[in-house]
Amino acid sequence: LAAADAQNESNVFIEFMLDIILETLVAYKMSDNASDKMSDKLEEDLPDGITGTETHAYLLIKKYLLDHDSITTTVAVKLIGKSAPTVRKHLGRLVSLGLLEANGSNKNRTYSLAK
Known about the structure:
Blueprint: H1 2-7, H2 11-27, H3 32-42, H4 52-65, E1 71-72, H5 73-80, H6 84-96, E2 100-103, E3 110-113
Antiparallel strand pairs: 1-3, 2-3
Helix pairs in contact: 4-6, 5-6
């Protein structure tokens, strides 16, 4: 908070809060049974041509988006555990497959589930 005040920027605070929220979500684990049921539900209607790594990324993102309106690349990087360029590549592919919608321009881009 002191860094945000000193820089007169809210970005530091927002990143701090997003990190805490993400850590909380990751720490909270569902039981194996509930997780299996959720995975089955999430995998319904995936398009042909989606790779295994894209499916994995999509399932993690979709699970997150069931409780949130949108996701940023920064949050997706932490959620998926891959580099920013790799996650951006997956996000772009998921948009092109019609699974996600991109909103905003480059730095302010967020992604939401396609309707």
